[in-house]
Write a structure and sequence with these properties.
The protein has 151 residues and is mostly helical. The protein is built from six helices and two strands, in the order αααααββα.
Length: 151
């Protein structure tokens, strides 16, 4: 599993993102490249801009923590065309360059804050996570969608 807290590996993600263009076509799924960039930003918004997204209610929170968390924070890659949670669904066109710039900024911020800042940090959907669980979740999500667009 890649280490999102490592400067070299964070740069690798940025290099892959920089290979995307507004015309890059997906291998699977429904979202366009601009929508996927916005979609990936939602994961970071829940960390750095939590006011943008309401926390799950009691029942949804229970289901997320008890049934979804273990599949999200482990090291097993996501399969293509998995269902997307409602808050991650992006509709309409987005500004490709703006979403790309935001995603790169979030990756850099995460790397610069480092592993220690994430150990025991509360997740919007899953409660307290270890730094390794944060790493796995963020790395898997990035890899899944970058592979979706062939980079």
């Amino acid at each position: 599993m890649q280490n999102v807290f490592d400067a070299k590996e964070a740069q690798n993600y940025i290099d892959r993102i920089n290979k995307l263009t507004p015309e890059t076509q997906r291998k699977w799924g429904k979202m366009t490249v601009d929508q996927v960039l916005a979609h990936m930003n939602v994961a970071y918004e829940t960390i750095y801009e939590p006011e943008k997204h309401p926390k799950p209610g009691f029942i949804a929170g229970f289901l997320l923590k008890n049934f979804v968390k273990s599949k999200t924070v482990n090291e097993i890659p996501y399969k293509p065309s998995l269902p997307t949670g409602p808050m991650f669904i992006i509709k309409g066109n987005r500004n490709f360059e703006e979403e790309k710039k935001r995603l790169i900024g979030f990756i850099q911020k995460t790397q610069q804050l480092g592993r220690e800042s994430f150990d025991g940090k509360m997740s919007h959907s899953f409660g307290k996570l270890t730094a390794q669980e944060w790493n796995n979740m963020l790395a898997k999500h990035l890899n899944h969608h970058l592979e979706q667009f062939g980079v």
